[in-house]
Amino acid sequence: MIDHILTLLIFFPALAAMLGFVVTKDSMRAYGIAVAFIEFALSLCLWYAYDPMVSGMQFMESMPLIPQFGVNYLLGVDGISLFIIILSTFFTLIGIASLTETRRIKDLIITLLFLEMTMVGVFAALDAIVFYVFWELSLVPMLYIIGAWGGPLRIYASIKFFLYTFTGSLIMLVGMLFMAYLYFQATGMWSFSILEWYRVMVPYANEFNEVWWMGNYQIWLFLAFFIGFAIKVPMFPFHTWLPYAHGQAPTIGSVILAAILLKMGTYAFVRFSLPLFPDASVLFMFPIAIIAIIMIIYTAMVAYAQEDIKQVVAYSSVSHMGVIILGTFALNVEGVSGSVFLMLAHGVVSGALFLLVGVIYDRRHTKLMSEFGGLASVMPRYATIFGIMMMASVGLPLTINFVGEFLSLLGFYQQSHALTLTAGVAIIVGAIYMLTAYKKAFFGPVTNEANKNLKDLNKTELVGLIPLTIVAIWLGVYPKPVLEPINNSVEGVIQLMHDKAQSPEAKARIPDLSGNEGTISMQEAH
């Protein structure tokens, strides 16, 4: 089974979803939980069998699909993708187990299982076309979830979500086709294997001249991939679809969107953009860092101005994605490892916060903070877990976000002291709006009669929230089991970037890890 465990992880949920059509409505919830639990257990088996000391791909599977054009069913995982796959299966299980939706529950669970297939497929695919197929297919279940179970503006939100991400994906596809053509020019063979693409030196001109922009394929390809990934993250100014999607999506839609789907964009930067286009990555490092800092500051200020607590969490999600982007484009082991770890941390914390917002919405059918106040005395268990996750969100030491944010900022500090300081100060704004939101909703007297008899968290809700709270604290206190495999794989990516870099600036910015184990001399330090 371990030889084909990735295929099993991808297609088991889809097969179970098709069988779900013959399951009765009354049994569908238990069936969905059972399927999601088996899938999660399989992902843990993947982690158990994974060798953390190996930096390259493991559990690889290959089968020709369109051999004349080099399209193959090629799968594999490394430390970068392993834990995002586990996060995907974990949140699908948590999401189905925590479902409070009663409308067309059977359709919703079937849709979630199909969505799980596409998510695992994206993170396991090593062929660009297979990656693209799963990437695009993930839009359909989420479009359906927002459009069928969302709020009053659900149709507008779902169409905006689809059009934004689909447009970016088409531009990315053009880049993929041209990358395959460059590989064909270099080798005489077609291939869409990402690992084979890593061997190609994409043309890059070191000096400015009249044809600098025309012949610089690396820059144009970087931009083509960047647009597709930036919309998915979403980066400023492509972020406008996200608040609508979160605001109108049902709780489970917001949870999966924040925890997993946004990570597709940041993961793709590490899998495609950095190793394929190292010189362009260095060239655009500071412009992208400035955009990331704008994301952190601008969306944090917008979050502070919100009256709807779900919109506060939604904008804070975009703000924290800015820190992930900053770490990714630090282009060193500390920064990229921190950004990958922060992808997991952001998934756990933001997913939990959307679940918590869903809890209070189910009871009061409003998300306006002005409708609450004094909830800590009425719902102490709810207030405690919300408080822990809020502290994790603002990066309190010994919580999961702190590890990722610290490493991301540490990595970028090696590239620019001033920008890192600006980003660090901007994160403080996050603490301000989260603490302000918590104060409005949970402290003070209970002024609204409708809040006086609210029920605290029930068993079903605790089943979903307690594991997330444990993970948020456990990986904040002891991140080594996750961070070590990530770090080893990131070292391989950084070394590949250094070896492929063509410009002197890129050689200087991207550390050479061969033989020096990531250390620098005193001369280099000064």
Helix percentage:
over 70%
User: Which strand order does the major sheet show?
Assistant: 1-2
Shape: globular
End-to-end span in angstroms?
A: 53 Å
H/E element order: HHEEHHHHHHHHHHHHHHHHHHHHHHH
Q: In terms of per-residue confidence, which ranges show pLDDT below 50 for 5 or more consecutive residues? A: 516-526
Count of helix runs = 25
User: What is the tally of beta strands?
Assistant: 2
How much β-strand is present in the residues?
Answer: under 5%
Evaluate the radius of gyration: 23 Å
Average pLDDT score: 86
SS class:
mainly alpha
**Largest sheet geometry:** 2 strands, antiparallel
Describe this structure in words.
The chain is mainly alpha-helical and 526 residues long. It is built from 25 helices and two strands. The protein has a two-stranded antiparallel ribbon with strand order 1-2. A hairpin with a 4-residue loop joins β1 (58-66) and β2. Mean pLDDT is 86; it is low at 516-526.
What is this structure, in a nutshell?
With 526 residues, the chain is mainly α. Helix 3 runs antiparallel to helix 4, helix 3 runs antiparallel to helix 12 and helix 13 runs parallel beside helix 23. The protein is globular.
Spell out the key features of this protein.
globular; disordered C terminus; 526 residues; mainly alpha; 25 helices
How is the topology of this model organized?
Blueprint lengths: L4 H15 L5 H25 L8 E9 L4 E7 L1 H19 L7 H20 L3 H10 L1 H11 L4 H34 L6 H4 L14 H4 L1 H16 L8 H8 L2 H11 L1 H14 L1 H6 L1 H20 L4 H20 L4 H32 L10 H4 L1 H14 L6 H14 L3 H26 L16 H19 L2 H21 L3 H6 L12 H4 L1
Antiparallel strand pairs: 1-2
